[in-house]
Write a structure and sequence with these properties.
This protein is mainly alpha-helical. 76% of the residues lie in helices and 0% in strands. The radius of gyration is 26 Å and the shape is globular.
Length: 684
């Protein structure tokens, strides 16, 4: 090793340490869920026990309890209020340890009391006449306090964007009621107590399905399975050209399956992959963009899809397995697009992969492939419909614990074997195994983390239900639908474009589950009325709500990536949008041709669609990159604009299912490839 290399190693190590030290700060800045109170000592233990008990309560209720619906949902939100105010302070910044101001305690008590009032009086209230309820001041005051306290918790844990949307719809609802001479008390009844408001489908699905899967994700993290995803991605792709960026794509796809946050996924995996990309030679804006685009794609990756898949199944009235089956091809094409763009950029810059000593041994990783067993069990149980989704998640949690225990045993055997053989690396391996051991305390920590992660999702679903309630009671959804249909003048493509703009604007800064709830109520019916199949319409709005996380100007995932890479937030967002081009193209494809979502297709049509789409995605990525891959890597030669346009056009035709489009697409992409090959030879 040269002296120069030796000097660079400490600098690289220091850079990684600085990045790791700033991860928490970045999460607090761009991810509301990470801006939490600081508890230490016995208060921390008490809060942890409350969160863990909440997780156990959710598992028990979803699997065994037969509570009245109103009792189950109101008690769920009452507990969320308690945990939320114990977890989230009123504002960002430095916080006192073990401190909770009196006004937060007051809000927590009043808010929880409002929901528990409904819990303990549900039977009485359901049997009381409407007139008597609207004249009962306790009934009305409890509802008003509950709505206000929930909205404040939303501001703290989720952010202002969704609250601004909800506030606008609520203001319209109040105006609509007053205009028609109706009592304002009826708004409280409709939005707080009735199934049209916060106790509607979003919070119902959240309490029944989503929380159990969030807890499952927490167990995957504590058993080290999430870390295994990153190591596996490193072993599979790290050695190839531009390896770290490819590691980012693959690891984010794997980790994103069980992550419900684009920002959280960006920071978690990005703290490892972004410094590696920069050291390899990628531009800082490009490095942050790769991680942001890949992490955002994690929200569309089966089997969990940021928890929105559960809501979609409920809205559409189809089995959950049907949703994730149809999501596979579009998700794979999305990540293929990002992967190809990364590969072409690496070739253009002449970047190499990681050295052998920087990579985990693939043989050793494959020996630990049993770590993927819980995820395999989950997918099997859900897709085979052997049991309910809740039961499948519960059994997967048990499988995760068992795998964690087995992993401890096998790793200790490995250390003992190394010690017997006198291996000099025994001590280092023993320390690594000790750090990775799954202990009894990790079960408690997983339950605690799962409960904490449920807060923001539950609050977002509650506020999304409020928005849905406003749309329902006022009929505003029908007005918006008719307006878009009228503006588009029956032209489907124009209707799709206008809906895309609405989805991106409404989805900016809003969590995945809440985004989908809003889109499903406002935008999906527009497309359904224009003749788009229901499942295609819902997938369309879901995709564009997700890509809002990387679309400037409010691109939170890109901002988080730029904070780690040290790049420009706006340039990172623009690069992420270009890398995630498939996420902008594919929804139009399956809206215009349902074959992409495997609607009414045969197996050979699926194979043909897959092959042509892969070739088409290469054509699009080549056209956007323009790098002549036949040239020497790092030469920086860019194709002419004409060649690039033809390649993009051919790629789009191949992605769109259909015999005629496939023939024309193959002709165009093939012509470009021949032009590149023989044109370059003639120049040489």
């Amino acid at each position: 090793m040269s002296n120069k290399d030796k000097e660079q190693i400490p600098e690289a190590v220091n850079e990684e340490q600085n990045v790791a030290a700033n991860v928490d700060e970045i999460m607090r800045k761009y991810d509301r869920e990470s801006n939490t109170r600081i508890w230490e000592g016995w208060p921390k233990t008490v809060v942890g026990i409350i969160l863990a008990l909440f997780s156990l309560f959710c598992i028990y209720v979803t699997l065994f309890a037969n509570f009245l619906e109103q009792v189950r949902l109101s008690s769920f939100l009452g507990l969320v209020i308690v945990m939320g105010y114990l977890t989230y302070p009123a504002k960002k910044g430095k916080m006192q340890v073990n401190y909770m101001p009196w006004y937060d305690i007051l809000l927590m008590v009043l808010g929880a009391a409002s929901f528990f009032y409904y819990t303990f009086n549900a039977n009485t209230l359901l049997n009381t006449g409407m007139k008597a309820k609207l004249q009962d001041p306790v009934y009305i005051i409890a509802g008003i306090i509950g709505l206000i306290v929930l909205a404040e918790l939303c501001r703290r844990s989720v952010g202002l964007p969704i609250l601004c949307v909800a506030g606008a719809f609520l203001a319209y609802t109040i105006f609509w009621y007053v205009k028609d001479g109706k009592m304002l008390a009826k708004i409280v009844h409709e939005l707080f107590y009735n199934e049209n408001g916060i106790l509607s489908t979003p919070i119902n699905v959240c309490s029944k399905y989503i929380v159990v899967f969030i807890i499952f994700g927490a167990f995957l993290e504590k058993t080290g399975i999430s870390t295994y995803f990153i190591e596996l991605a490193n072993g599979l792709t790290g050695r190839y050209s531009g390896g770290p960026a490819k590691v980012a794509v693959v690891s984010s796809a794997l980790c994103g399956m069980v992550s419900g946050s684009s920002v959280g996924n960006t920071v978690t995996t990005g703290s490892i992959t972004i410094p590696m990309m920069k050291k390899t030679g990628y531009d800082k804006n490009f490095s942050g963009a790769v991680e942001a685009a890949a992490s955002t794609g994690g929200q569309i990756m089966p089997p969990i899809m940021g928890a929105a898949a559960f809501l979609m199944a409920d809205y559409l009235g189809v089995p959950y397995s049907d949703i994730i089956t149809r999501a596979i091809l579009p998700a794979c094409l999305y990540f293929l697009g990002v992967f190809l763009s990364v590969h072409l950029e690496a070739k253009r810059l002449g970047l190499k992969g990681l050295s052998r000593d920087q990579l985990p041994r693939l043989k050793e990783l494959l020996k630990e492939s049993y770590l993927l067993l819980p995820l395999a069990i989950l997918i099997y149980l859900v897709c085979s419909q052997t049991m309910t989704m809740q039961s499948a998640a519960a059994w997967s949690i048990i499988a995760t614990i068992v795998v964690g225990v087995v992993s401890n045993y096998l790793r200790m055997r490995k250390v003992l074997k190394m010690a017997r053989e006198g291996d000099p690396n025994t001590q280092a391996e023993a320390e690594k195994v000790n750090a990775q051991q799954f202990r009894l305390v990790h079960i408690f920590e997983a339950l605690e983390n799962g409960g904490r992660s449920c807060i923001s999702v539950a609050v977002a679903c509650g506020i999304a239900g409020l928005i849905v309630g406003c749309l329902t009671v006022t009929g505003l959804a029908s007005t918006v639908i008719n307006a878009i249909v009228t503006i588009s003048q029956g032209k489907l493509f124009l209707g799709l474009f206008l809906t895309m703009i609405c989805c991106i604007i409404l989805g900016m800064g809003i969590p995945t589950t809440a985004t989908y709830c809003i889109m499903a109520s406002t935008c999906a019916p527009i497309l359904i009325q224009m003749g788009v199949p229901m499942i295609c319409a819902h997938f369309f709005v879901f995709y564009y709500g997700i890509v809002a996380d990387i679309t400037p100007p409010v691109a939170l995932a890109a901002y988080a990536g730029s904070a780690i890479s040290g790049g420009s937030p706006m340039k990172t967002g623009v690069n992420a949008t270009r890398l995630a081009i498939a996420g902008f193209i594919i929804p139009f494809v399956f809206a215009l041709s349902p074959d992409m979502l495997l609607v009414n297709t045969t197996w050979y049509e699926v194979v043909l669609i897959t092959i042509t789409s892969i070739i088409g995605m290469y054509g699009v990525c080549y056209g956007l990159s323009g790098f002549e891959t036949g040239e020497r890597s790092g030469s920086g030669r860019i194709a002419g604009i004409c060649k690039r346009i033809i390649s993009i056009a051919g790629g789009l035709l191949l992605i769109y299912p259909g015999t005629e489009t496939d023939i024309f697409g193959i002709a165009l992409v093939g012509a470009v490839m021949l032009w590149r090959r023989f044109g370059n030879k003639s120049k040489n």
